[in-house]
Amino acid sequence: MRHNKKINHLGRTSSHRQSMLSNMASSLIKHKRIFTTTAKAKALRKYVEPLVTKSKEDTTHSRRVVFSMLQDKAAVTELFTQISEKVENRPGGYTRIIKIGNRQGDNAAMCFIELVDYNENMLKDKKKTAGKTRRSRRKSTTATESFAETSSKTPKATQTPVVVKEPEAAVEPEAAVEPEAPLAEIITDEAPITAEPTPTTE
Length: 202
What we know:
CATH architecture of the domain at 14-116: Alpha-Beta Complex
Radius of gyration: 48 Å
Mean pLDDT: 79
CATH class of the domain at 14-116: Alpha Beta
Distance between the termini: 140 Å
Structural class: mainly alpha
Number of helices: 6
Number of strands: 3
C-alpha cells in the first residue's frame, strides 16, 4: 500500500525514476506523442508541464534549469524555439492522455500522451464546430441589417402608405314591415258585433 506517499514510485529507485522521466520528456518534446503505460504518463505529465511553462520565458537561466532536468541539447532547443511559440497563449494543460486499452502480455493499462497544440485533427474539429455556430448568428444579424439599409435608402416619395381597411360589419336587410293602420280604421272596417241568442234547451 502507498499510504502517505505523494508520488507514484513506479517500482523504481529515485535515480532510476528521474532518468526514466527525463528520457521520456525528451522523447515527448522531439516526437510530440509517445506510447506508454497510464501510470508513467501521469507521472510524466507532472514532470514535463512545468518545463513547458518555463520555456515561455526564453532566458539563459530558464534554459539552464530546463537543461539540468532534460540533459538533451536538441530537446531544449526544440522546446524553446518551436513549442514555446505554439503554447504562448495557452495558460497550462499542454499535454493530453488518451487511453487505448490494455497490453496483451501483462494486461497493463496503455495510453498515449501528446502535446495538445500539435494534434491537427482535434484542432480542425474545434474550428469547424465554432464556425457553424457563428455563421448562423451572422446570417440573422446581416439579414436584419440589409433590410434596414434597403428601407432607409428608398426615397420617401416611392414609399406608399399602407392603409388598413377595417372590415365592414355585415348589414342584414331589414324585414319589410307593413305600416300599421290607425286604430279607428280597424274598428270601423270590422262588421258590427251582434249578440247571438243562446239556444234554449226544452
